[in-house]
Amino acid sequence: MALTLSVDTARWRAHQKSVIEQFPGLVPVCKGNGYGFGHERLAEEVTRFGSDILAVGTTYEAARIKDWFSGDLLVLTPFRRGEEPVPLPDRVIRSVSSVDGVHALVGARVVIECMSSMKRHGVKESELAQLHAAIEDVRLEGFALHLPLDRTDGSDAVEEVIAWMERLRTARLPLHTMFVSHLKAEEQARLQQQFPQTRFRARIGTRLWLGDHEATEYRGSVLDVTPVSKGDRFGYRQQKVASDGWLVVVAGGTSHGVGLEAPKALHGMMPRAKGVARAGLATVNRNLSPFVWAGKQRWFAEPPHMQVSILFVPSDATEPKVGDELVAHLRHTTTQFDRMVDR
What we know:
The chain is α/β, with parallel strands linked by helices. It contains nine helices and 18 strands. It has helices spanning about 10-20, 40-50, 60-65, 100-105, 130-135, 155-170, 185-195, 205-210, 270-280, and strands at about 5, 25-30, 55, 70-75, 90-95, 110-115, 140-145, 175-180, 200-205, 215-230, 235, 240, 245-250, 290-295, 295-300, 310-315, 325-330, 340. α6 (about 155-170) packs parallel to α7. The two termini are about 20 Å apart.
């Protein structure tokens, strides 16, 4: 009995193919928990569709994935002087976001991040003149721009890239390759047309692996079902059951990421109102679980345990049976499955 990630492999791979075709030179990204699939599985997929490069989040991820992928590995976290050294092969490319970082990586293969409107990290326009001397001692693979997902000010992503291309050109820096993130296919095509001598390579993770929501599904196995009556006490805290029904023990707990949720940016009154409602219910120990039974998401009977969750299913629903599987709406990037099944 397990929390299972079920993958419609043919559909998943068809989606991968469509994204790869839209973005020539695509750089697949495998970071964190491998977008819910795991590093080894994504390395296998990248090898299968023949990419020459794979982007990872950290040097520690690169040290693990190097044994599963034989091409170039691009580390997205920028190098910092004084960081813990991790033994890595020469095919690893380091991202750098400062002139000092470039000076510290003599002989290394590097991609230089430029400061975008994300304002996260990157070299600034005022520092470009200093890069001339610095890049003499490294193997420059290109420059990079990590762009925001939303542009609430009405600005244009392509114009932001063009502005940086002009700055780099004015500074007489090489423009053979530009790595970009969060561009649409038509936006990359516009850039490629305007700068035919530059190779634009989109770094894509979420859209590549998780863009088709119907291709994957989490399922938790029912381990136990106990009938309860209104007023019965149960669980660690011996709370009372609010009405007749069943306590359903299902595979999937905090060690799997069940009950964990990344903060969300809310836009508009309706999402905000729902967020306030959820917070209000939580204060009286009413928390909606990710598990679905008989067409409805069911409530946690109490906070999820380490490896299982206990749900309350009211008596007006169909009684679950041991061995049934409940679909679970879980976030891939925070979930750890027990097993993966290709279907």
